[in-house]
Amino acid sequence: MTEQRYLPDADGVTEFEATASEVADDFLVLDGTYFYPEGGGQPADRGELAWDGGSATVTTVRKNHGDVRHYVEEIEGDRPEVGDAVEGRIDAERREAHRRMHTAQHVVSRVVLDEYGAETAGNQIHADRSRIDFEPADFSEADVAEIERLSNEAIERDLRVSKAERPREEVEERTEEGRALLNLIPDHVDPLRVVEIEGFDYCPCGGTHVDSLGDVGRVEITNRESKGEATERIEFVLRD
Ligand SMILES: [Zn+2]
C-alpha cells in the first residue's frame, strides 16, 4: 500500500524521502510517494529515485491496486532492499506544466458547460498541449473564440485554487450536473478529493493543479475538430 502524499494539496512537492516496500526487476514500490501515477487524462510524472549505493530513472508511474509502481530504467549500482531509505526527485518542470494544463482544462470545461451546456466527455493533458472532447456540441469559429476569451477572462481574475478531501455526500450534492462523471467513481471511495476554483468551479479530481489561476498563463485554442455527430474536440496550448 502506497500513501499518495501529494493528496490532498501538496501538488507542489517534487523532492521527498520514503522507504522501499517492494523491489522488482523493473519497478520500485515505496511506502509513500509524491509521484503522480498516470490517470484521469494526466500523464505520470518522471524523475529519479536514489538510495545509498544506487539510483535509477523513473520513466513512468502506475497504480496497481493500492500500490504505486515507479517503473525504472538506467539503474546504477545495486538495487535497494526492502526497508531502505529512498530519495525521490520529480521532474519539476514537467510537473509544473501538467499542473498548469490540468487547471486550464478545468477552466475551459467549466466555461463550455456554463455557456454551451456541453459536458467534458474526455480529456488528454500533455506538458505542451492538451485536448478536451465535449458532448453534445457543435462549435462555430466564433464559439471557439468566445470560449478562449471567457477562459482567459477567468484566469486573469487570478482566483484561488484549493484542493481538499470532502465527504462524498457533499461532493454529490455540490457537483453540477454534467461537470464530472461521479457514477464512474466506485461507491466506496469516500471522501473524495475536490479541486475548487474559488466561486467559479467545483470538481472531484485527483490530478495536480496550480494554487492560483494566474499561474496558468494564457489559453490559446489551436484547433477545433468534429469527432462524430455531436462531439467536438478542442486543442489548446498555454502561453506565459
Ligand atoms: Zn481534473
TrEMBL record:
Localization per record: Cytoplasm
A molecular function GO annotation: aminoacyl-tRNA deacylase activity
Domain Alanyl-transfer RNA synthetases family profile: 1-240
Keywords: Metal-binding, Zinc
One CC-aspect GO term: cytoplasm
Predominant location: cytoplasm
Origin superkingdom: Archaea
Cofactor(s) the protein needs: Zn(2+)
Record protein name field: Alanyl-tRNA editing protein
Organism whose genome encodes this protein: Halorussus limi
